[in-house]
Amino acid sequence: MAERAAGSRIYIIGAGFAGTAIAAEIRAKGIFGEVVAFLDDDPAKIGSRIGGIPVLGPIGDVVLLLRKTPADEALIALPSASREKLKDLYQILKRADFSKIRILPGISQIVEGAAHLILAREIDPQDLLTRSPVTINLSRSLSYLRGRRVLITGAGGSIGSELSRQLLSGGALRLYLFGHGENSIYEIDRELRMLQEEGVGEKATIVPVIGDLKDEDFTRFILRRLKADVIFHCAAYKHVPLSEANPVEAIRNNVFGTRNLVEAALGAGTGRFVFISTDKAVDPGCVYGASKRIAEEIVLAASKKGSADFMVVRFGNVLGSRGSIVPLFQKQILKGGPVTVTHPEASRFFMTIPEAASLVLQAGGVGAGGNLYVLDMGEPLNIKELAEQMIRFYGFEPEKDIPIVSIGLRPGEKLTENLWDCAEKMETTKYRKINRIIQDSPPPDTEDLLEKLKPVCFFDPSRQEQYRNRRILREILSSAIPNLELPAHEPEY
What we know:
- The chain has helices at 17-29, 59-66, 83-95, 138-141, 158-167, 182-197, 216-226, 240-245, 247-268, 287-302, 325-334, 353-366, 383-393, 447-457, 470-480; strands at residues 9-13, 34-39, 49-50, 53-56, 73-76, 100-103, 121-122, 149-153, 174-179, 205-210, 230-233, 272-278, 309-315, 317-319, 339-341, 347-348, 350-352, 372-375, 381-382, 404-406, 424-428, 434-439.
- It is of the alpha/beta class and 493 residues long.
- It has two domains: 9-123, Rossmann fold, CATH 3.40.50.720; 138-439, Rossmann fold (3-Layer(aba) Sandwich), CATH 3.40.50.720.
- The strands form five sheets. The chain has a nine-stranded mixed beta sheet, sandwiched between helices. Strands 3-4-2-1-5-6-7 form a seven-stranded mixed beta sheet, sandwiched between helices. It has a two-stranded parallel ribbon with strand order 14-17.
- Helix 7 runs parallel beside helix 9, helix 9 packs across helix 14 (447-457) and helix 14 (447-457) runs antiparallel to helix 15.
- The protein is globular and about 80 Å long.
- 45% of the residues are buried.
- The model is unreliable at 1-5 (pLDDT under 50).
């Protein structure tokens, strides 16, 4: 969203509602440059003028002529375009040597035709990867949040921050941005306020909250003060190898942090609680997956303790999240390689961050308490093929220009992931890409397990030999979760 110097020439791809709104905003502000033309494939628009700006086309033919013109920037304003259409457009625009190619978000993030220049960003590989995301009427999906106080934990993270952006359009009374890291909360707080200044969304009161869910007393105190009607619990340690290296802290944060939040929400009268889970909770083979599986059980069990709706939404990887492979591949490609993959046959489920957030928000409104929902992620994507696509995005040829090296699976990693296990059955709902998991048996009681884990995670003078003992932790976890193996040489600390 960087400013353009006066005199920049901008071609807007798409002469529909989004393109014309952006052109009007650029003209009104007068500091980003001049819109030279719209480029469009619609025969009914080609040759006309909109707001005095000519509409040229078809795009593929006109762009070839623009190679002789000092065009500075192309701005793709086609929020309903499919991934295939965007891929074709990107290749066409690259051949025309545009210095910048920016894009507006998908239609589900442009509520009621309110396109704004501040939403535009430089095109990224994730815009062209995987399938076309589902189109959701975000305004209608968020109607259950109108006039409510909404708390997002982990609001500075990848999913939490995108939920926060989309929640601007929900008519919420207050948005509580909860996080442990002050910098990430500062960033999303400033971004949301800037979006509001530019007319994006509605005028919810934004309240940043710095705190630690592992602090039981604080969590109970702050939930009573905030009186949140709806909670989206996104906060978690998510990095598999780091959790394997720091297993006690992963359980302390992901399990006990969730337990503290659930108990505080029950005490504060929260009406709806949506927990963000992961495919790694299915037959977990790593500490991270085990922590999320136990947290799922804590949340589902909470629905039996009162009238509130506590539910779980489970999905796989999201493209471009912090610490994930897409940013890693980007850095590796831009330094000339090599690009590292764990195994040539490794695959994962992928979804864009905006699509995942939109479906989570929809599920939070249509879901019922005590239910586990799983998002339809499509077919899993081979990681090596993903690396090859990204290398080509940056104009290189895989193996020829940028080598791809297999480094082997890291501790806790699987070759493939599943979205449900053999004891679970998936059934579709009437909402696209939102499915419900039917479990053969009710979730196990986690109280006994938590009691065993507590002295390992929190200091107890009467059992101080257990404190931070990672071998004891893994023994406890492996007795409750058979797939989680106890490493032969696991150290005590």
